Automatic annotation (TrEMBL):
This is N-hydroxyarylamine O-acetyltransferase. The keyword Disulfide bond does not apply. Keywords: Transferase. InterPro entries: Arylamine_N-AcTrfase, Arylamine_NAT_domain_sf, Papain-like_cys_pep_sf. It comes from Actinomycetospora cinnamomea. GO terms for molecular function: acetyltransferase activity. Belongs to the arylamine N-acetyltransferase family.
Amino acid sequence: MYTGPMDVTAYLTRIGAAADDPLEDLMRRHLEAVPFENLSVHLPEPIHLDVDELVVKIVDRHRGGFCYELNGAFGGLLGALGYDVALCSARVARNGGDDGFGPPGDHMALLVGREGRRLLVDVGFGRFAVGPLDVDRRDDQPDHAGTYAVHDAPDGDLDVLADGTIVYRLDPRPRILPDFAPPAWWHATSPESPFALSVTCSRLTPTGRVTISDDRLIETGDDGSRAERTLTVDEQLATYRDVFGVELDAVPTVAHPS
């Protein structure tokens, strides 16, 4: 559990939350305030898996990040608030698991202890459960984003399902943040990484989700609506600033190999 000198007040202000808010509210506010984004991969700029540096990026620089950064920082906040937090490795399912799973450390999520239960908390997977999931239950768990379930998997792992499809396979054994440095480096640098293929910046909204994907602005609603349009460079910079609170000097673009 992180117990470093975090400015908890500044972090809570960043996400518009209070220290005594329930876990469910902290998750929702984090998902609405802090975008899932891979801009560092394409700017490019270094990614450091250190809680203090992650908090500087998210709180002081008003940025987001991908799973290792978002869950790493949020886990630090929860630890500073007194929660029992474990960092856990997950393997992302390919085609719902029919084509196997990614390598260990492909994703990082959090297990949070509350009243003798283990809760899966994940603010770093893009579109995913908005609230915590009880990993000790085996029945369906309704969530704002769909119906989730946790099933037993081989070797003590746990399969996490969304609307009946496996999303990832979770190893519930606690890890430390440096364990994820190699897969984070691979995702940030390999041309085979999905994060190298496109620029993404996305966050939850009170009525759906807003996303920049390369030069497209995509707005989806909880009612199933979808609006999409192409942005000019100036419109991209303005959208990053006005919609995501991210100030950029230049638009990040995918560097295609020659």
